[in-house]
Specification:
Helix content is 42%, strand content 16%. With 398 residues, it is an alpha+beta fold. It has a domain of 109 residues: Arc Repressor Mutant, subunit A (Orthogonal Bundle). Strands 10-11-12-13 form a four-stranded antiparallel beta sheet. It starts with 5 loop residues before the first helix and ends in a 7-residue tail after the last helix. The model has no long low-confidence stretch (mean pLDDT 94).
Length: 398
């Protein structure tokens, strides 16, 4: 097996993730395809991810792709995470990763409905609620879960959740139902009911939004199609990376690798990785580059084994126990720190590993570029890095 060392892996990521100078994506759809998907759990993340990858990107560019062209679609899928998918990957996602999440959501909802005595026959209750929602949205505009609940008697009911936690209490069942229907491909998140930094989902029927029903691939074909895109973006990857990214079983991932005819390569630290069969040629170096990436950006999140781009000693300062990351500062293919936006709107970086004069200058240039683009707007995130909490306790992660 040929060796793909850490330096070559960093060069691959720089080009394929559209982060190095001269390798930026030409538009929103090209950038989303380059990354396979963009994390979208937090409303602002895909905007900031695209700003880092598309020269001249402006907020309406993503809105146009999501709302007018509908070439990019938000879908709950791998690891119960919301992603922005290129539309052509939806059949694969709906048949595999999203279907897995939908089954889990349905089972949990049945259990909670019966435990809270909302319904004796929870499965029938859910199906009646689903039918009512689909009927209501057949011709009408997109609606929020709250609006659906207020209009449809079939969605009445509350669930007592997390009773022994400080954040526990009663919650309406409607958001749980529409989340399950979104994972299953019945519904899709249409227009946002707020601005680009705040998530206010408005739901509509997927077949109506896209003009026709989406026919899911079967699970094996779906995972194989998604794995092909993932390997193209992130390869070489370890089996652990695959299982982490997809939130799937080793069996499903091994079947996908076999179906693709994926090729084994050697990695540093005595590991074995996988690449597509047409992706074995050496990758030349790239010029050093700097980037400021938002919380949950796929370049930060794309691998479980991260020590080729992240000092293991720094990982607890940037990633939480579930593997979710806050904002990151990159220099020449490595994470070297984090960034935040202070009360005046200034982007401030906290660098844990000094990148030297050239790195400091490049990072400063990126900070000022992002600051100008934000124009005083501050982006809050639930994933504030511990590194920032110690060094910039009053700043919002950008």
């Amino acid at each position: 097996m040929r060796l793909i060392d850490d330096a070559e892996r960093r060069a691959r990521a720089a080009r394929r993730h559209a982060l190095a100078a001269g390798h930026r994506a030409g538009d929103v759809l090209a950038a989303v395809r380059a990354m396979t998907v963009l994390h979208s759990t937090e409303q602002a993340t895909p905007y900031l991810s695209l700003f880092a990858r598309v020269d001249g990107f402006e907020r309406p560019d993503l809105d146009r792709a999501l709302i007018e062209d509908r070439s990019v679609v938000k879908q709950l899928a791998m690891r119960r995470t919301l992603f922005a998918f290129p539309r052509e990957l939806l059949p694969a996602a709906l048949g595999s990763a999203a279907a897995r999440v939908a089954r889990q959501e349905h089972a949990a909802l049945v259990k909670d409905l019966e435990r809270n005595e909302v319904a004796d026959d929870a499965a029938s209750w859910i199906e009646a609620a689903r039918a009512a929602i689909l009927d209501r949205l057949a011709e009408g505009p997109e609606l929020s879960a709250k609006q659906l609940r207020e209009e449809l008697a079939e969605l009445s009911g509350r669930l007592s959740m997390y009773e022994h936690k400080s954040y526990g209490g009663l919650t309406h069942v409607a958001p749980r139902v529409v989340t399950w229907m979104g994972a299953a491909g019945d519904l899709v998140r249409g227009r946002n009911g707020s601005h680009w930094r705040v998530n206010r989902n408005l739901w509509t029927r997927m077949d109506r939004w896209l003009g026709a029903p989406v026919d899911p691939l079967d699970a094996a074909a779906g995972y194989e199609r998604l794995a092909a895109a993932y390997l193209r973006t992130f390869g070489p990857v370890t089996e652990r990376d695959l299982v982490w990214w997809f939130g799937a079983t080793k069996t499903a991932m091994r079947q996908a690798l076999s179906g693709l005819g994926a090729v084994q390569v050697r990695l540093e630290r005595d590991r074995t990785g996988w690449v597509l069969p047409d992706d074995t040629e050496p990758e030349p170096p790239v010029e050093p580059w700097a980037a400021l990436l938002p919380a949950l950006d796929p370049t930060s999140m794309g691998w479980k084994d991260r020590d080729w781009y992240l000092d293991p000693a720094l990982a607890p300062d940037l990633f939480d126990a579930n593997g979710n990351c806050g904002t990151t500062v990159w220099w020449d293919g490595r994470i070297v720190g984090a960034y935040a936006v202070d009360e005046s709107g200034r982007v401030e970086t906290v660098v844990a590993h000094d990148p030297g004069p050239a790195g400091r200058a490049a990072i400063e240039t990126e900070a000022r570029r992002l600051e100008k683009w934000l124009d005083g707007e501050r982006v809050a995130t639930a994933y504030k890095a511990a590194l920032l909490a110690r060094n910039r306790p009053d700043a919002d992660a950008g």
